[in-house]
Amino acid sequence: MAILQDVRVLDFSRYIAGPFCGMLLADLGADVIRIEKVDGSEDRYYQPVTEDGQGGTFMALNRNKRGMTLNPRKPEGQEIQRKLVATADVVIANLPPDTLASMGLDYATLSAIKSDIILTTSTAFGSGGPYGSRVGFDGVAQAMSGNMHLTGYEEPLKNHLPYVDYATASLNAVGTLAAIIHRMRTGEGQHVEGCLLGSALTIANGVLIEQAVLEKNRVGTGNRGQTAAPSDTFRTKDGWLLVQVAGDPLFERWAKLMGEPHWLDDPRFATDQLRGDNGIDISKRTAAWAAERTTAEAMEELAAARIPCGEVLTPAAALTNAQVVEQGFFEAVDYPGLSRPAPLARMPLDFSGIDPDIRRRAPTLSEHTEEILAELGYDAETIENLRDRRVV
Predict the structure, then answer these.
(1) What value does the mean pLDDT of the chain take?
(2) Other CB atoms within 10 Å distance of the CB of residue 316
């Protein structure tokens, strides 16, 4: 039995921070309805992979959902939205507060329709403060959290993958589940609100504590870590690998692998922080060691020494890596217009009692509109009329 099989979620969100939250709930069995503009939401066409422009990120983040279109700006659209809300447990919307209100998706409006509704929203900066009304994406939060300053060298660098969006969505999913449990106990709904900047600052918190207490004023050192060593990327005969050592036991293993116990007696390397402060010398030694080996040879020796390491893989190589394939992290799922099935990443959690499998691909535009409206009591003629007038 799916954990959330009796939970209905209306997903009005876009891009990543909202849709990934909805996807996690859908993977756990919720009936998640992705609601888009009549011509499709912007994220449907982001990073296109089909001839008609359907996006890869949309396919990844909207699996296990049903899809419908709706224009809530029209009176009939508002009526449909009210009927949907009356059947729902959760509404997800990563929209600015003024947009939520204008669409009738603010908590006051929703709770007037269904008193125990849970509203889960995301903003860029939080709903208050001098930036409260501004819009923003993942990269803005990366920039403001200190991450970009520490990721590059002289020039700040943004992470290519939007980790802040995914962190916010994951936290929102946790918050939504907590709100569902709270409602089960008390009968009360509530508004769960996450924000990109808050997520980014949470991830950076340890670094920010160090700055506040010790005023280290760190600057970027590229791939080389600053609080332990060796923690860096190293070129091999045929590629690159990453090594991460932290703690005395691991450093002792590294020194033994190098065949040089003198590293353990040098006071410059007595602690993780001292090793981080003097990490250039340790990286140079590891680089010389790696340069004499192929990636496979280096990985085998590091793994035998129980030292954390990993190949630096291209996206193509990540898809075919033996560990990735053996563990079944991806499931091939077809989608209309794709030249080949898409590798969808399954929920990266394993449960002993349930299987959060991929039950359906992402919906095509308006694929389930008739089905959902029929569930609300609309007949075929009325639905056709609503389509003709672009209400749905």
Answers:
(1) 96
(2) 7
